[in-house]
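Today's session is about reading a structure prediction critically. Students often jump straight to the picture, but the first step is always the sequence itself: look for stretches that repeat, for charged clusters, for runs of hydrophobic residues. Only then move on to the predicted structure, which in these notes is written as discrete structure tokens rather than atom positions. Here is the chain we will use throughout the hour.
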Amino acid sequence: MRCNRPRIGTMGLGGQSVFLTVDHFHSLGETLHASSMFIEPGGKAYNQAVAAARLGAEVVFIGAMGNDEAKEQCCVYLKSENVTPIIETIVDENTAYACILTDNTGENRVSVFRGAAEQLSKNFVSKNEKIIAQCSCMLLSLESPLNATKTALNLCKKHGVFTILNPAPAIPLEIEFLHSFDLITPNLQEAAFLLGLQNQPDTKTLAQHLKHAGFKRAVVTLGENGSLLLDASCAWIFPALPSKVVDTTGAGDTFNAALAVFIAEGYSLKDAAIYATNASSFCVSHANVMDSLPTRNQLLNVFREIVPIRIL
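Below is the predicted structure for this chain, in token form.
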């Protein structure tokens, strides 16, 4: 396996997460008693940063946090994972916080308070142009203010940095803006929303819609059904690997981090998607998030080949 030690940047939300295990999810008006509670740092970009570092990349995390104990705890953990935190401190706001409910099937429901993360400024991003320019690949999401994300995108384009947009949480966006990224990685629901579709289409129809909308490269995660990969010439389904599902939290973040690392190392998009599928399979078989992010050796030890299925 190649390993050129790429430099990955992530930008978005970082904060504290509390995990509660329940037998089932709430019905209207129902109060549930959790059987366990676990607290750890997290957030989409934060998880991606740690996952990319464990897979062998040099990683920087850019985000905004409050001037509080949660910020200190988040930064200490990042440094322990060999991730460099680049943090804009928002004095009068709290660091982000998330509550994750996981039921007895391993599925989850997430509620997030974004707090200081919503105030990441485009000026702070611009001040860190040199750091962004040194990245091989930049993973962006929609957790940060859109003007900060656009600033990061423009800096990446200026310096030839490969850009991946994980468009979550989904918001209305112009197709031309989405086309500005080298790769987009929505899940099925996000892809349908971004394309203005009223219903979630089957995978072949979705691939046709993406192609008709002008996308030359996209990876759509499909949960237990694997992922859909679209490139300039065709579309492929990458089946999910059989796994005992313990907790699906963080699986998408792990997938995106692995995709970024292996693309940055020079792998083809198809080969990178195979490694990303293996990484997310490892993730769902472990509880919580930080304990479920595989190291490179762990990924190699459980690696299974995947034969993608061409559908277009």
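Discussion point for the tutorial: The chain has a mean pLDDT of 95.
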